[in-house]
Design brief:
nine-stranded mixed beta sheet, six-stranded antiparallel β-barrel, globular, QueA-like, Thrombin, subunit H, 17 strands, 7 helices, 28% strand, alpha/beta
């Protein structure tokens, strides 16, 4: 299938972009997609759509306070968004300024510490390398400490309010434990501890991967032929216990269900043809588009994604291009809430949409 960027566009009324989360984590709606079938549900219906022996895999990354404001040594204002912390004194970031700083330029951030921009990096040179050169206080030991003390929570660009007290909690999953992401794995925001306990009580297993979501997740596709797009790279780690749980689930005939596209990308990057995965840390720039053959993930829980985005391409590959076009048209007509703080979908994998799974609808 030869598809262009315009094939992944759709009209979205601005008022459907969720600016705040639902009052309760599990209070969102859930659109269940199985082939051409679409069923409007509540997220609290999810346990009834799973069965004992299924395996839910969550991304346990934790969002760091990655946004900083500061000035160049020439006096110009800058906004920094960390892409990743490389080590104690080095980081990669995006920079917003009236004029991009030149290599060697010093930046004073949060009126508290100084970094040197040492050069451009990334596939298209659209990221900047930073080196920490000065800090004011003894406790400001490294980029991790500086982020926690002086950084701002990096809400997505389509959320129009600055980060508030409630966002500090609601823009993290309840199981977040590995700091390093600059955007939340938002499908997991719908789960609370009570929901997790209900799932376990039903014999539904859980496991974790870690994929640190980078600022590149919001990077627009700038080419018309999607085959020409190059994905940003992200770090992930699959524990041996998760790889073992996947193998056991496969052997027992259970289903592997990714909670979020980040979990899916990690699993498919590490996947083997037999549906098992290789444990350990790695990097991925996997770009999943229609025509991709999935190796590991049977079902996907995800939010609604931006027009012309790589994530919309991914879900179109997973559940079928025509099915997803119809699903998004339905979601707009039914006034679902979109993006990070919005509603959720439960997607069946296209090649598995046979009678054996139809009883889950």
């Amino acid at each position: 299938m030869s598809l262009s960027l315009d094939d992944f566009d759709f009209p979205l009324p601005p008022e459907l972009i969720a600016q705040h989360p639902a009052a309760e984590r599990t209070g969102s709606r859930l659109l269940h997609i199985c082939g051409q079938q679409r069923v409007d549900r509540k997220f609290t219906d999810l346990p009834g759509l799973l069965r004992a022996g299924d395996l839910l895999i969550f991304n346990d990354t934790r969002v760091i306070k990655a946004r900083f404001f500061g000035v160049k040594e020439t006096g110009g204002q800058v906004e920094i968004m960390l892409e990743r912390i490389v080590d104690a004194t080095h980081a990669i970031c995006q920079i917003r300024a009236s004029k991009a700083p030149k290599p060697g330029c010093l930046l004073k951030l949060a009126d508290a510490f100084t970094v040197r921009m040492s050069g451009r990096t990334g596939t298209d040179g659209d990221f900047f390398a930073l080196e920490l050169v000065d800090r004011n206080k003894p406790g400001d030991a490294d980029f991790w400490a500086l982020s926690e003390r002086y950084g701002k929570l990096p809400l997505p660009p389509y959320i129009e309010h600055p980060a508030e007290g409630a966002d500090e909690t609601r823009y993290q999953t309840v199981y977040a434990r590995e700091p390093g992401a600059v955007a939340a794995p938002t499908a997991g925001l719908h789960f609370d501890e009570a929901m997790l306990e209900t799932l376990r009580a039903q014999g539904i297993h859980t496991a974790f991967v870690t994929l640190h979501v980078g600022a590149g997740t919001y990077r627009p596709v700038r080419v018309e032929k999607i085959a020409d797009h190059r994905m940003h790279s992200e770090r992930y780690d699959i524990p041996a216990s998760t790889a073992e749980a996947i193998a056991a689930t496969r052997a027992a005939g259970g289903r592997v269900i990714a909670v979020g596209t980040t979990s899916l990308r990690a699993l498919e990057s590490a996947g083997n043809p037999d549906g098992t995965v290789n444990a350990g840390p790695a990097e991925t720039n996997i770009f999943i588009t229609p025509g991709y053959r999935f190796k590991v993930v049977d079902r996907l829980i995800t939010n609604f994604h931006l027009p012309k985005s790589t994530l919309l391409m991914l879900v179109s590959a997973f559940s079928g291009y025509d099915n997803m076009r119809a699903a998004y048209t339905h979601a707009v007509a039914e006034r679902y809430r979109f993006f990070s703080y919005g509603d959720a979908m439960l997607l069946e994998r296209a090649e598995q949409q046979t009678g054996q799974d139809s009883d889950a609808i």
